[in-house]
Design goal:
The chain is mainly alpha-helical and 234 residues long. The protein contains nine helices and three strands. It has a three-stranded mixed sheet, sandwiched between helices. Strand 2 and strand 3 form a beta hairpin. Helix 4 packs across helix 7. It is globular. It starts with a helix and ends in a 9-residue tail after the last helix.
């Protein structure tokens, strides 16, 4: 899957308008991403789980697009769309988004969704056969991960997956030196955006924003704040 991610990621970047690295926002995406990645590495080392992310080769790119979206593929390939920056509004909220999206990847949520889809379509891949050699499997991969995902093809992330991404995303952002409390106003802005009557942002296609999520975030906040040291990079 990580090999498939690299292929799809490179193809996506070649077909997209990648914001130059000397741009302030692009530099911010790379800076925040690196700090989140360092925090995750530190956390996994502390838990004795380094092997879980051993093959991750982190990359962070900002792409010019009106879509309100961001995603992380297996292996640590991350893209932020410029369309989400007016909603994040600041570096702390961007850290909340990246912490959340990267948690989905490192926790294997995409793999779970892909396995469910393969089971639903009665697709069986022998252990010695590469996933990338089967057209149906490649199609499912494209429907689960990142740039070519089609809305409505698969069920969204489960509530348990969303809760886990919120939970550890807050911790990783806090460990990276970003205030996890910024999650509340960010998701409030997303909720207002989704209820404004305009087209539903892509980001919300499998990341539903509602009052219950915000209340849960408030419950998770005391734990996240124990990891927070202002200005300290993870």
């Amino acid at each position: 899957m990580e090999k498939m991610s690299i292929t799809q990621y490179r193809q996506f970047l070649s077909q997209s308008k990648v914001v130059p690295v000397d741009n302030d926002n692009a530099e911010m995406v790379k800076r925040v991403g690196k700090r989140i990645a360092n925090a995750i590495t530190q956390y996994y080392q502390q838990k004795g789980l380094t092997n879980e992310i051993y093959n991750y080769k982190w990359e962070f790119n900002l792409v010019e697009s009106k879509e309100v979206n961001a995603w992380c593929m297996p292996g640590g390939k991350v893209v932020v769309y410029t369309g989400i920056l007016p909603v994040t509004q600041n570096e702390e909220a961007l850290a909340i988004v990246l912490g959340h999206e990267i948690t989905h990847a490192v926790a294997g949520h995409g793999r779970e969704r892909m396995s469910q889809a393969m089971l639903a379509q009665d697709i069986q891949i022998a252990g010695n056969v590469a996933l990338g050699s089967d057209p149906k499997t490649v199609n499912i991969f494209n429907n689960v991960f990142g740039p070519t995902a089609q809305l409505g093809v698969l069920l969204p992330n489960s509530r348990n997956q969303e809760l886990e991404a919120d939970h550890y995303g807050l911790i990783f952002a806090a460990m990276a030196g970003y205030n996890p409390q910024e999650a509340i106003p960010f998701w409030t802005r997303m909720m207002n955006l989704s209820s404004s009557g305009s087209q539903t942002p892509t980001f919300l296609s499998d990341h539903p924003s509602d009052a219950s999520r915000i209340e849960k975030l408030k419950q998770l906040m005391p734990e996240a704040l124990t990891y927070y040291k202002p200005g300290k990079s993870g």
